[in-house]
Amino acid sequence: MAQFMTLSEAVAQNLNSGDTAAFEGFTHLIPHASAHEALRQGIKDLTLVRMTPDVVYDQLIGMGAVKKLIFSYAGNPGVGLLRRLRDSVENGWPHAIEIEEHSHAAMANAYEAGAAGLPFAAFRGYKGAELAKVNPNIRSVTCPFTGEELAAAPAIRPDVTFIHAQKADRKGNVLIEGIVGVQKEAVLAAKRSVVTVEEIVDDLHAHPNACVLPGWAVTAICLVPGGAHPSYAHGYYSRDNASYIAWDKIAADRDTFLAWMKDNVLDARPEDFADRIKHLRSAA
Amino acid sequence: MSDTDFTSNEMMTIAASRALKNTDVCFVGIGAPSAACNIARLTHAPDVTLIYESGTIGTAPQVLPLSIGDGELCDTAVTTVSVPEMFRYWLQGGRVTVGFLGAAQIDRFGNINTTVIGDYDQPKTRLPGGGGAPEIASSCGEIFITLKQSKRAMVDKIDFYTSFGHGEGGDHRQRLGIATKGPTLMVTDLAVWKPDPVTREFTVVSMHPGVTREMVQAECGWTVRFADKLEETPAPTGIELSTLRDLNARTKAAHSGGKTGEAA
């Protein structure tokens, strides 16, 4: 049953150095506040999983918290490359990280296999694609009925998944709306899960077919308004595209990056996120 | 700039937009493809179905999204599905007629690299990676590609096969058991290219107004083949140009201020 607690408590109780952790979000609802709390608590040696690592994974990698990255697209969407990731892969700063690279189809299928309790995912993919040659976790299986050769990837089973959602009710049931991404699968695939939410309400007022995670399927819930910033929460505030564009300059220089991280992450608190989204609040 | 003048980038976007039909279901890559697909929707193909890999199906954004998952895409979509459903039911299920891709590096057979420049383990430049492209390239009915020409982008040999085009040419796709057509069109800022029916090598079939063979060759890393019957790409119409410029102006205003129009 989901327990309500502060983000500081939730990270301390559910994330350990050396864990395999997913901070999921597909452009929308990216759990920035949770990742920042992990950095403040000095968590190290993480194997990070995410389909679309962007700014917040650039921050975790640049701060030296990451041992390995499992991913399918690493970029600052619409802006450019991830400069801290590049510095790690190309120059070994602050240290080299191990890379396990898949396609989106493979990652999505592998999360779904994890949620379904299966050992691997089978799908039609990677035909002629060179990733299969550099990633030993991309293999193939033969369909026992048709003989078709299909691609196979191991299920993703994180120790802990962090997501951000719009709201939870007082029993801990969580509602996710808008671009739902792969968050439901990522939570159900993980041993533990931490959900930060914009608000806690008496009634979710959810449509019968809405994307709801029952409270008994979630480990911890933390109230962190604005916790997705500079990503967005549909119905609450819009994506801070200007911050994504600004990140390209901040991340371009090691010292500028470290100074920014000290001011905005290490010396900040989860409560600071609420101020960051004030100018992005929906008119509704 | 007068109403009849246009830049090579505008010509590229508009020429690419003309390839989409009103009945197409198109998986849209971010950047240049996104602009072309939305110009198609705002001009000759109002009912084209645009799909972004964030799960938004039948989307009709007022401004171009900065990312594949901007709120604008969800707000204007017919429906928004989960990412696993997107890749399993809609893409792998064979329901997408056209995949529209950009490319960091491409060869004459439409093989695309967006993974690394240099060696995979010791890359000179680590690029974002494939994302949805490896399966878009094999699961969509056909692939359209649009990119700005340069010798850096159009190379004799790509550093990494992120997504498979026509491989080494000829029937290479069939030999790998891929049933879809693969790249059937490439639109650059200088020309329109189509694969040779036998060798599958991209061949210039139409040059944009004012462009010469020498100009196409100067920005391409392989020896360019030109069709026997070489045509001139029709110049942008007034409607096409004003639609594109209005869209770009709305987009610029939305992304510089932080608020993305009516998003969220």
What do these coordinates show?
- The complex is a heterodimer of chains A (284) and B (264).
- Chain A is globular and about 55 Å long.
- The longest helix of chain A has 13 residues, at 254-266.
- Chain A is of the alpha/beta class and 284 residues long.
- Chain A has helices at residues 7-14, 32-40, 55-62, 83-91, 104-115, 131-134, 183-189, 241-250, 254-266, 273-276; strands at residues 3-4, 20-23, 46-50, 66-71, 98-101, 120-123, 139-142, 149-154, 160-169, 174-176, 192-201, 211-213, 220-223.
- Chain A is built from ten helices and 13 strands.
- The mean pLDDT of chain A is 97.
- In chain A, helix 1 (7-14) packs across helix 2, helix 3 (55-62) packs across helix 4 and helix 5 crosses helix 7.
- In chain A, strand 7 (139-142) and strand 8 form a beta hairpin.
- With 264 residues, chain B is α/β, with parallel strands linked by helices.
- Chain B has one domain: 3-Layer(aba) Sandwich (Glutaconate Coenzyme A-transferase), CATH 3.40.1080.10.
- Classes of the chains: A alpha/beta (284), B alpha/beta (264).
- Chains A and B meet through helix 4, helix 5 and helix 8 of A and helix 3, helix 4, strand 9, helix 5 and helix 8 of B.
